[in-house]
Amino acid sequence: MPFSAMIEELERRRERAMAMGGPEKLEKRRGQGILNARERVDHLVDPGSFIESGLYATSARPEMREKTPGDGKVCGFALVNGREVGVISNDFTVLGASSAVINQKKVKHVKDVANKRGFPVIFLGETSGARMPDRMGAPGRAIVGQDGAEYQRLRTAPWTSALLGSCFGHSAWYACLSDFVVMRKGATLAVASHRVAEKAIGRSITSEELGGWKMHTKVSGLVDVAVDTDQEALDMTKRFLSYMPTHCNEAPPRYPVPLGSDDKCKNILDLLPESRSQVYDVQKIIDAIVDVGSRFELKAGFGRAIVTTLARLDGSTVGIIANNPIQKGGALDVDACNKVVSFLVLCDSFNIPVIFMVDVPGFLIGLEGEMRGAPGRIINWVNALSQVTVPKITIIMRKSYGKAYLNMGGGKNSDEVACWPTADLGFVDPVVGVNILHGLKEEDDPERFRKLANDIAQDSSVWGLAALYETQSVIDPRDTRTYLIRTLKVHSMRLTNGVGKHLLSNWPTTF
Asked: pTM for this one?
C-alpha cells in the first residue's frame, strides 16, 4: 500500500496518545469508579461528534515527550444535545494534568475558537497545579502571563466547570470563572493541596476541610451543585446548558411544555399559610407556577434565605429569585446578596428574563453582617439590578419591607409589579413599627398596641400601593402562572430578537 510506513507511524502515535498514562493508572481509576478524561468526554458529548485538537501534543521538554501523551489534557470540539461546544478534559493519569506550555496552548486554542465563533466551553477539572520544574526560577516566569486575556470573562458564551478530582491551579481558576460549577463529592477545589496548606498554617487539615463539597456549596458559594458520581456531574452540565443560549446574541432555546403544567397553580393557596408569621417553603410555590419538572436550582446550600433557580415558563427559560421564609424568616444576609448578584449577572448576560417572588422582612442586621461589608453587598445588588436589561417581573406575595423592597424589584426596579392580595408593603413589621414609632410594648397597653399596629398594617396594604399605581396589577395567586406567561410575552425583546444589552457581561465572576 502506498505510504504504508507513514500510515503505520500515524497509527502507532495515535495508539500511544490514546493510551494516556498507561493501563495501570487507568485500571486503578476504574476500580475507584472514576471515569478517565476520555471516558468523561464520551459520556458528555453526542456520539461520534468529538473532534480532538492536539492529540499528538507532548511536553516541550525533550526528556518528557514520551511520558506526556496529549500533554495531559484532552481538548477539542463536539456537540452536546446537537449544539456545538468546546471541551477541555484534564487527564490526571499524565503528570496529574499539570499545567505546562504546550497544554496551555491547547486550552487557549479551544477558548479562542469558542469565543470567536460563539459557543460554550466545558471544563472537566482534575489537576495537580503547575508543572514542576517547568515553572521554577526565572525561566518559569517567562512561561507565565504571556496571555494578558487568559482570565478575562466577557461572557460571549456560557462556561461550565465540573470538578471531578483534585482541582488546584488551572481547574480551580477556570471553575471560578465559570457560569456553572458542579462538584463530585470527594473532589477538592483549592489554591493548593492540603499538604501545602498544612505547611502554611502550621496544623493538620483534610482535603474536605480545605475545599470539599460541603465547604464550597454552603460556605464559599463557589459550587452550584454537588453530586455523587462523574456521570451525574456530566449530566448536570448538560442540563444547565439546556437552559442557556449557545451564545449571548441569541435567545435561550424553547422546549415543549409538559402535560399538567397548568394544574398545580390552581391549588397554590393551599401552599401559602394564612398567618403572615407562619413560614413555608417557597420552592413549592415555584413548582406550582413553572413548567413541570423544569426547576433547576443554583447554589441551593448557600445563602439559603433566598432561592435562585432557572426554570421554564411555557417552554421558555426564566430566572427566578425568591425569598424563602423557611430559612431565617427570609431575611437577607451577605451570602444571599452575593448569590443574587451572581444570578443577575448570569441572567442578563444570556438573555434570561428575571422574576422576583417576594416575601422579605428586610436585611439581617447584626455585627457579623457589618463586619462582612453588608452595606456594600446590599448596594452591589441594587447596582447590578439597575444594569439588568432583560425583562424583570415582580410578584409580591407577602412582606416587602424596607430597603429590601427595592432590592427585590419593587418600584421602578422592575418592568411590571404585581401583588397578591396578601401583600404587605410596610417599612417594618407593624408590631416592630409600634415599638419604634411609639416606644410601646404590647404588654404595656395591649388594646392601644393592637390599634396602633392595625393602623400601620392598613396603611401598608396592597390597596394603598395599587391606588398610587406603584403596582400595575393585583392578582389572584391562582392566576400567577397565566399572568407571568402573558406578561413576559408583552415584555419580550422583539426589537433585538430576545437579546439584551449585556451591561453586566464583564462583572467579576466571584465576590
From this structure: 0.92
Q: Do domains 28-242 and 264-425+461-496 have the same CATH topology?
A: yes
Phi, psi of 389 (to 5 degrees): -115, 0
**Structural domain spans, the chain:** 28-242, 264-425+461-496, 429-460
If you search the block for the grid coordinates 439559603, which residue do you land on? 304
Q: Write out pLDDT tens, residues 457-499.
A: 556 789 988 999 999 999 999 999 999 999 999 999 999 999 9
Per-residue pLDDT of 231-266, as tens digits, reads 999 999 999 999 999 999 999 999 999 999 999 999
Residue 415: is its pLDDT beyond 70?
yes
- Which class does domain 28-242 fall in? alpha beta
Query: Does the domain at residues 264-425+461-496 carry the CATH identifier 3.30.470.20?
Result: no
State the Cα torsion 297-301-302-305 to the nearest 10°: 80
Q: Residue 358's closest CA among 311, 320, 303?
A: 320
Beta strand extents in 5-60 (DSSP E only): 51-52
Which pLDDT tens digit goes with each residue over 81-93?
999 999 999 999 9
Three-state secondary structure call for residue 425: coil
Residue 299 grid cell: 447554589
Which CB contacts under 8 angstroms, 24+ apart, belong to 211-216?
Answer: 211/167, 212/185, 212/186, 212/187, 212/188, 213/183, 213/184, 213/185, 213/186, 213/187, 216/183, 216/189
